[in-house]
Amino acid sequence: PRDKGWVLKHLFNYQGFWHTTRQVQGVLACQKLFEAQDTDLFLVTTPKSGTTWLKAMAFTIVNRDRYPCIHHHPLLSSNPHDLVPFLELKLYVDNNVPDFTNLVSPRLFSTHMPYISLPDSIKKLECKIVYLCRNPRDTLISLWHFSNKLRPKSIGNISLEEAFERFCKGLSLYGPFWDHVLEYWKQSLEKPERVLFLKYEEIKAEPKVHLNRLAEFLGYPFSLEEEKLGVVDEILNLCSFDSLSNLEVNRMGKLSTGEDNKAFFRKGEVGDSGNYLTPMMIQHLDVITENKFIGSGLEF
Ligand code: A3P
């Protein structure tokens, strides 16, 4: 059966993580059909951790020779999700076998798949992976807003209390959140040249530092000349929340998968969860986070 990703009524556990029917179908199809190339680059995120932002930045970095003029940049007329498609949510849905012959190298893909579920060829070829996550409080609040925005009016909103309870139990899209993050964290420690681990809050705090890290990791470092010409600032401005969220395409347009582009832009701030979660909820989440991450060296 085809349910919508945001209904969240029937989640299925596959390889230890929760998915909608449609997502499981996409993951299975990818595992069976996707053949990676060693130059492929993968952007992996937990839902609502800044995927749209990361896609915009990585696409712009990797393609800056093809699109040197910022005034005619594809980001001005396309949502980042249409420029860097999700493997399991766009490319392989309905057992579709996508035609990649026209994609230029390096191919840029994104996914929310947990590490355990990534297609074998990605792991065997040791393709580069950029992993982005966000603190669990803001992730939860962003996810809650997003789910309610996309839920059909007929089934009504999910309450914050219910969303909170489900998230804490791990019953969120691609959850448990903490297990997803930990898998990639461990990979990034074992193979830092292969997995770059980023946090939304850190990019917000020092965007220039992290844009440089991202460019270097992807194999497209900025030259001194580019630094002098202000290319880094230009990319940061183009990809900023204010810039992207005010574009006509993101205010009025729809993704090729049907969602309103504006659903991917809400506040774009760190700490908005403090406006919604009670002190008890925050404490509860923090205790789960501490227990899950104990001994890993990872904290938010
Ligand atoms: P909020 O709901 O907290 O505002 P994703 O892209 O993974 O779906 O995550 C969406 C979250 O990232 C939303 O968070 C959204 O507002 C924020 N976001 C989208 N574009 C952004 C950008 N260019 N810079 C910073 N945050 C952005």
From TrEMBL:
Any single Pfam family the record assigns to this protein: Sulfotransfer_1
Q: What is its EC number?
A: 2.8.2.-
From the UniProt record, which GO molecular function terms apply?
Answer: sulfotransferase activity
- What keywords sit in the KW lines? Transferase
Q: Which residues form the Sulfotransferase domain?
A: 38-296
Q: Does the keyword Transferase apply?
A: yes
Q: Which domain of life is it from?
A: Eukaryota
Question: Which first-to-last residue range defines the signal peptide?
Answer: none
Family per record: Belongs to the sulfotransferase 1 family.
Which PANTHER family does the annotation name?
SULFOTRANSFERASE SULT
- Under what name is this protein listed? Sulfotransferase
Query: What is the protein's species of origin?
Result: Thalictrum thalictroides
